Amino acid sequence: MKQFILSSLFLLYSFTVYSTLAPQKYNAEDSLLYYKKLSRKKKESYKDRLAANDKAIYWSRQVSDSVYLEQLIYRCDLYYYDKQYDQAIAQTKTVLDEATRLKSKRFIAQSYDNQGDIYKKKQNTSEAFTNFVHAIELFTELKDSIQIIKISKKASYIQTSLGDMDGAEYTIVNALDYSNTLKEPSEISWFYDILGRVYRERGLWQEAIRYHRKALQLENNKGSKASLINNYAITLLKSGDNDGAIQQLEVGLAYKDSLSLNTLYRLKDNYAFAKSRAGHKDAIPLLEEALNLRTSIDDIPGKYASHIHLAEAYMTLGNTKKTAYHAQQAYNISSKAKNTEAVVKALDYLIPVTKESNVLFKEYTSLSDSLTKAQNKAKFEFAKLRYDVEKAEERENIALQKITASQLREEIAIRKRNWALVGIGGLLITGLIFILYQRERSKKQRILDRYETEKRLAKKLHDELANEIYLVMNEVENEISSPAVADRLEDIYKLSRDLSRETKPIQTDENFPTELAMNLQTYTSSERKLILRGLESINWNVINPEVKIEIYRVLQELMTNMRKHSKASLVALVFKSVDKLLEINYSDNGKGVSLSRDNRGSGLLNTQTRLKSLGGEIKFDSAVDEGFRAELSIPI
Predict the structure, then answer these.
(1) Other residues' Cβ atoms within 10 Å of the Cβ of residue 597
(2) Where does the source fall among the domains of life (predicted)?
């Protein structure tokens, strides 16, 4: 009996000890699973979790490279959660070295992302941004849209927080190229919200509002939507739409049960501030309430914002004592936080209402200059960092990818062919432009040549033919001859005189409308009247001299045709300018004519030719015993 009791006690002790020990594993996968789970148990001490991770790393080497790298990254997470940031950075460098050795581009990218998160936590923005850009470039090569968008959010946040709006816009637009692969559209709502803030800072209110609305359309989560509404309301406030901001913030406050206290109190404060901007009487109590709520949860940035809002509200009411108090509180908070931008904003309200304005103004000037320099430096550094990253990756790609001689020759051949095509295309375009130029030049030259010919004919008709006829007429009068011969000679003389007048040189300067009117009046008589309308309303100074000459000759042709054939007693010419076109309507009450193609005289055909040379057109409308009409249209 005694031996049985002792045996039972030994078995019970053995079972108890065995149950407290780690189970003996028979393979690497089981051992890895055990220590992996143990390292993730939050109830375990930090030291025990690190020890378990050491074991997991050891067993993961025997499973696969990817599992091994995962365990190395998790060790970095353990350091990060325990705020051991220097150790976390050292661990990410270890992961990066191992991932490079094992040629795992995905884990290299993930290491850069983790390193960026740690540097961001340490407020080393330039290092954080550099690592994020490295990660984005690598995930772009891997075509991992989700990671590109996730990391671009973090990179653009750094850029906007430091005032680099142009850089943030570049980062966001680049990331949006990958948004079509996302299953959940709400994942990019934050990008549109950032774009709204970017355009808000530039004062482009319509663009800003459009992107805020787009962000709200894509977001489904109530908490996230309330934050987007808050940002939209701020844009409306800055644009001067106080009532619109109030309406939006009322919508955001309706989600109060889904919001964190920070978000809820931020909405309350901005709601009260919008009311103060709109002149509501209950604004001050609401602002004071929001300040008390933020103080109760020790929301430092929130308290600063509430004091700034109260300073502005009291300044609007002319209460300098209250303005000074809240501006001083905001100044104290921002100075303690070493936030230059916030200090400058607090001084905006404090300087006008304090006796120490001269001293504070010097500080204000100095801080404003340093803030501007810091923002410009950030923009330059971010642009340089992105350039350096892209160049470094370009060098890596060249080193990793060996191009064979045949590929290189093919690339050179393609490049030469493309340059040859560009050259041929350039020559063809140049040749086409030259041909068009020559054609236009020839057209103008033909007009000028015709005009010069007409001038020579006019001179010849006047100096030679008309004078000779006049001498013959004198000789006939001095001798006895038939009256019919004298009348015939007089008709010939009048004809030569008319031809001389019709081909004489034309003034194309500011006197052109007067000369044109006088020329047209020569076709009237006691039995034939001319009505001119709109001639002086045309801006003849903008019309080329060649065009004026052709208009003059076309109207001469129409009037000559009328006098010879129509027997009209009334002629009307109406000028008007419509959409860069000069329109001239001619009409008479003569006997008209049939307008069949065979029945058109050389005069009408000549007018068509002249107008066609100008890119214009003329339309005729006539019938027997129904008068004659013509519509001229000339580009000017």
Answers:
(1) 6
(2) Bacteria
